[in-house]
Protein: Aspartate aminotransferase family protein
Organism: Cohnella yongneupensis
Amino acid sequence: MLDLESATREWLDKDDRYLWHSMASYGAGKEPLVITGAEGSWVTDARGNRYLDAMSGLWCVNVGYGREELAKAAYEQMKSLAYYPLTQSHVPAIKLAEKLCEWLEGDYVIFFSNSGSEANEAAFKIARQYQEQIGERNRYKFVSRYRAYHGSSMGALAATGQAQRKYKYEPLASGFLHVRPPDGYRKPDGQSEEDFNLACAQAIEDVIVWEGVETVAGVIMEPAITGGGVIVPHPSYMKRVEDICRKHGVLLIIDEVICGFGRSGRKFGHHNFGVKPDIVTMAKGLTSGYLPLSATAVRKDIYEKFRDQQSYSHFRHVNTFGGNPAACAVALANLEVMEKEQLVDRSRLLGERLADEMAEWVSHPYIGDIRSFGFLMGIELVSDKATKDPAPLALVNRIISSCKAQGLIIGKNGDTVAGFNNVLTLSPPLASTDEDVAFLVRTLKSVLQDVVADARLGDSA
Ligand code: PMP
């Protein structure tokens, strides 16, 4: 035990000295988990503690950890062909592109990159160029929603609707506009959920018209806003947005970086809403995080406008590593596991179970709303259920650290500037066992219960 502790201290000291973490700043008594291994839905840290990873890393390890099939696929592919750029072609990319079209259930062509941000950047460039090449030369703007996250690069961040992630890095790419998200929990009193959602869709049309229809290239949205606090739209919303896009010649880009690959209980999130996007972007669950890979799926007839080699009509965009053969081989193995183990159906089943288990907890004094989309859940914490004031960050953090102390990793999302960093998030591996889900529910409930008991004690003190 002592050895593990001193080894951990050594790693933490070096971490503190050499490693610049994503998002979090450590130091001042806060230390990261140094994860040394993982199996199924569980990760182990350098001290030997085990945690159920109910965030699948960063919403991505859909098939769970420790899958030999995926490791073997990478190994075999690296031995036979480790790398070749997709300025030419290779078999794993061809096979994966075909497979993705099958999963998408539509007529698409696939462009590979390495990350969700890059997949979205490619989508924006394709949309602008397509509009230009069909004679719509002034269409360069994109409409997105506040609270949505679309990535960290200058265009994807511009599409993001969370001010706190942006204001230190502006000016970002220009031409990105935002509208109100369909946050049914905060709809005006007296309005039905559906009417409110349709009004939110109407806000998109208003922006398109007010900006000048001939200036708008596309609308980008996730099927459900994930990182911005799990905002799940009414079933009518996305269809209405699709109709608006069609009416005005605006491309509908669906960001499936989190909602794709079974997370929503269907293969892709938009399959829940019966829409046919013009462009679909995906990453994370594509390889379950085993290797970096992302894709931008583009409707075939849009792609056809890029095929005229006479002029500069081809897509003048390249990334060195996009569609790396080993990453494609891993993605194929990952999709095979999902098919063999019917993980899309399992996601729906486990999502329903989790939603049933948590439903009555909406009466908890600090829980304002519980929202789920397949095996993805957001629990919105408030300090006052009548005013819906967001719970203080200290309470949210306390719940998260109590969960961690009991071996459960959960997430926290929302929008800091707007005071909404108050949504607990759950996005466990789709291959979680029944026991994993039981542990998750039991631990979370016990922590939520303790929070109330402690608050009562606080009142009487
Ligand atoms: N879109 C969405 C919806 C995301 O959640 C993310 C990442 N969390 C991205 C895009 C960007 O992906 P990446 O971090 O791989 O660039």
Notes: The chain has a mean pLDDT of 95. The longest strand covers residues 377-384.
